[in-house]
Amino acid sequence: MIRLMNASDAADAAEIESLVQSHPWTKKQFEESAAAHQSTVIELQGKVAGFCILQPVLDEANLLLMAVHPSQQGKGLGYQLLEQSIAMLKNNPVQIFLEVRESNKPAIQLYEKSGFHQIDLRKNYYPKADGTREHAIIMVKACSDDFSKLFR
Ligand SMILES: CC(C)(COP(=O)(O)OP(=O)(O)OC[C@H]1O[C@@H](n2cnc3c(N)ncnc32)[C@H](O)[C@@H]1OP(=O)(O)O)[C@@H](O)C(=O)NCCC(=O)NCCS
């Protein structure tokens, strides 16, 4: 089941985040994000197995963060969560942007499967655990088939 995130899901989301990120968001950041953005979770047997945080901005949106619990990856949950979360956006965005670490091949392939493509490279953007930095790939997905909207 995919549903909106509540403040009470913040601990579960932070736990998943701490298992997959070298610089994880805190529980407090998830609480704030549940209120400020369109934050969703995917549940398996009543347990939060992943989350997706989308920030609608005017007629666009930014994908800020998503993750699936390591024990549940590779089963199609991430794709399902991303597609449904995008469909739940109330602002009907023309396009959605995201930034991803160049080394994060699973995420890049998920985003490509969902229709995102690279539009830019931000050099030395992300800090790495070893003190060096790595590039960010900027991706976009065009959502609207109403082309007149794109040229407003
Ligand atoms: C990226 C992530 C959310 C994908 O979630 P998932 O549930 O494992 O993904 P799915 O099983 O739905 O796979 C969907 C697609 O993603 C890609 N993918 C997923 N895992 C992959 C892997 N290990 N290697 C290559 N591609 C992969 C594939 O294109 C896959 O489609 P396919 O099965 O038809 O080949 C998950 O790996 C994760 O939480 N990673 C750590 C956090 C992270 O990097 N978040 C994104 C940056 S904020």
**H/E series, N to C?**
EHHEEEHEHEEH
Bound molecules: coenzyme A
DSSP helix count? 5
User: Can you list the strand order of the major beta sheet?
Assistant: 1-2-3-4-5-7-6
Q: Which structural class fits the helix and strand makeup?
A: alpha+beta
Radius of gyration, in Å, reads 15 Å
Q: How many structural domains?
A: 1
Going by CATH, the homologous superfamily would be Gcn5-related N-acetyltransferase (GNAT)
Under CATH at level 1, the class stands as: Alpha Beta
Q: Tell me how many strands there are.
A: 7
- At CATH level 3, the topology is Aminopeptidase
- CATH architectural designation: 3-Layer(aba) Sandwich
Main beta sheet, described?
7 strands, mixed
Assembly state of the chains shown: single chain
Residue share in helix = 25-40%
User: β content, as a range?
Assistant: 35-45%
Descriptive tags:
single chain; 152 residues; alpha+beta; Aminopeptidase; 7-stranded mixed sheet; 38% strand; globular; binds coenzyme A
